[in-house]
Design a protein that fits this description.
By secondary structure, this protein is of the alpha/beta class. It is built from eight helices and six strands, in the order βααβαβαβααββαα. Helix 4 links the parallel strand 3 and strand 4. The chain is globular, with a radius of gyration of 19 Å. Bound molecules: farnesyl diphosphate (FPP). Farnesyl diphosphate binds next to helix 1, helix 2, strand 2 and helix 3.
């Protein structure tokens, strides 16, 4: 597929993959069955981004708040993460994908932490799509941990409080080394950020769809990309200024 199909592609797409539980319930399956079904949508999203040359794809797999779910669902989700890393890391590596997990991984089992470390190490020199999985991640957590790092620099006398800029703080966040998301997608009908990338979504275009995540396949993703392509991003300027600077 050629990139000509889209007038304007995002460099970084961030997605809240919502609606797995409802997808399963609609089929009279247990809630949990929606999560393995959602893995196929993850594969297709990765494939489309790779085909189009999108640089970064960030997926919200498990929020800091998801621990509040029924214990059985949390346990099965953790098993699914291990299984996905076990089965997919090698394939991602062959496709030149670099995998990175963001979030507080210290709460995960040592087995899952090992799989994360190994998958990241295996793919760390790859130069294609950067696939970032947010796991036990929260936007407020990210801002707080970034602030703590800055506070340490101040304490050590390396930085004056009055010299702190948003760029300093950005450098301490989990996504410091990638461009900010251009497009944010949330599936499953809800229209909120749910403590995802609070800091990084300042100028991001939002796209909400009722499609449930396991049904969000290649064509559904392309609709979101088409919507993005039709928008004019102004970053605080007027429409006329943006047109002139083209
Ligand atoms: C939200 O749907 C989805 C999750 C909390 C888990 C997402 C996990 C996957 C898609 C599988 C693994 C992915 C990777 C990248 C390893 P929900 O359960 O909140 O759905 P509902 O709103 O219908 O209840």
């Amino acid at each position: 597929m050629s990139t000509e199909e889209f007038a304007n592609l995002p460099r970084h797409v961030a997605i809240i993959m919502d609606g797995n539980g409802r997808w399963a319930k609609k089929r009279f399956l247990p809630r949990y069955a929606g999560h393995p079904a959602g893995v196929e949508s993850v594969r297709q999203a990765v494939q489309l981004c790779t085909d189009l040359g999108i640089e970064v794809l960030t997926l919200f797999a498990f929020s800091s708040e998801n621990w509040r779910r029924p214990q059985q669902e949390v346990g099965l989700l953790m098993e699914l993460f291990i299984k996905v890393l076990d089965q997919e890391a090698e394939k991602l590596h062959r496709r030149n994908v670099r995998l990175k997990i963001i979030g507080d991984r210290s709460a995960f089992s040592s087995k899952l932490q090992d799989y994360i470390t190994r998958s990241e190490a295996l793919t760390k020199n790859n130069t294609g799509l950067q696939l970032i999985i947010a796991a036990n991640y929260g936007g407020r957590w990210d801002i707080v941990q970034a602030t703590q790092k800055l506070a340490v620099q101040v304490q050590k006398g390396l930085l004056n409080p009055q010299d702190i800029t948003s760029e300093h703080l950005n450098q301490m966040t989990s996504l410091a080394d990638v461009p900010e998301p251009d497009l944010f997608i949330r599936t499953g009908g809800e229209q909120r950020i749910s403590n995802f990338l609070l800091w990084q979504l300042a100028y991001t275009e939002f796209y909400f769809t009722d499609t449930l995540w396991p049904d969000f396949k290649r064509d559904a993703f392309k609709l979101a990309l088409n919507s993005f392509a039709s928008r004019q991003r102004r970053f605080g300027q007027t429409g006329e200024q943006v047109e002139k600077s083209k």
